Amino acid sequence: MSEKIMSFFASVEQNFNQAAPFTGQPAGLLEQIRSCNSVFRMNFPVKIGDEVRVIEAYRVQHSHHRLPTKGGIRYSNHVNQDEVMALAALMTYKCAIVNVPFGGAKGGVKINPWEFTPDQLERITRRYTFELIKHNMIGPSIDVPAPDYGTGAREMAWIYDTYRAFKGNDIDAAGCVTGKPVHQNGVNGREEATGRGVYYGIRECLNQADDMKKIGLTPGTEGKTMIIQGLGNVGSFTGTISQDEGGVKIIGVGEVEGAIYKPSGIDIHDLLRFRKETGSILNYPGATNIPKEQRDSILEYECDILVPAALESVITKENADRIKAKVIAEAANGPVSAPGNEILVKKGVFIIPDMFLNAGG
Q: What is the pLDDT of residue 263?
């Protein structure tokens, strides 16, 4: 299947099919593991300003072998059923690999969250939660959402509050969603958990002297150069912890509005402050701007460690040959497509897969 017509879910299935023979499990069981058990598509109306908008949204429960199912909710214009199915499948495999006792799930709302006011986002979130409650797709023992691309603690608080309004007699109501603010039954350390796990995975990888020798790197994180694509929750914490605890030098960052490159090093704490003040990473002092139209070219700059921490399939057979990083740390879900992966492996690039790196967050 050519990559131009290969969907994200098909790419996940291809990777599954390559690994399946090594398990020694019967074909029927493998087919059951691979299949998505429940796919719920919804369209609900929400009043935005003077008009009524019909919002398209999804919740997929990939595997019920262990309950509850677990997986984030993303807000993005790119949300579709195939993407949510693929992300739910990845959650099943990632939970199983690190022995977290959940089945995999994922949710998606097809909106650009930056186009809406907080009040409008709250209405969308609460209505989406109501649909999940109505169809028994959320609950501490059923399905537990979490933050993902375009969502955070604020949205999780709205979900919790809506669930509690309808299920007030459930003593475990606070367990209906994770990633809530600490003052609303959240957990300390949850916000940085995935990014910290990504750093630990990178650290352990770079401590393997034999593996590093094969790709021309000395062991350890100190002084290694890193480029991060995506400065959201996972990317920002991966960057700050890698810099502060590992002595890594961040030389490039890509975001929605463009990318920046500064070979002498970028202080991530300072960059995050700069972006909060200006609304953009562009024009960061001393850095070279890469405009929005060419923002993905930051993936092709030379570095020791490349961290794709945004969306899936950003490295494909179209650009894999131009990747110069020695190590790719998959902080996002499925950032390297199956055909792209084959090219990188042949080039000798060391890939730390998302199945391991961002699991358990």
A: 95
pLDDT in tens, 202-243: 999 999 999 999 999 999 999 999 999 999 889 999 999 999
pTM for the full model?
Answer: 0.83
Q: Which residues are catalytic?
A: 106
Give the domains, in start order, of the chain with CATH numbers: 1-35 (no CATH), 37-188 (3.40.50.10860), 191-357 (3.40.50.720)
CA-CA-CA-CA dihedral for 338, 342, 344, 350, to nearest 10: 90
Q: What are phi and psi of 13, to 5 degrees?
A: -65, -35
As given in the structure block, the two tokens for residue 310 are 């945004």
Q: 189 vs 154, 192, 210, 307, 361, CA distance in Å?
A: 16, 6, 33, 21, 10
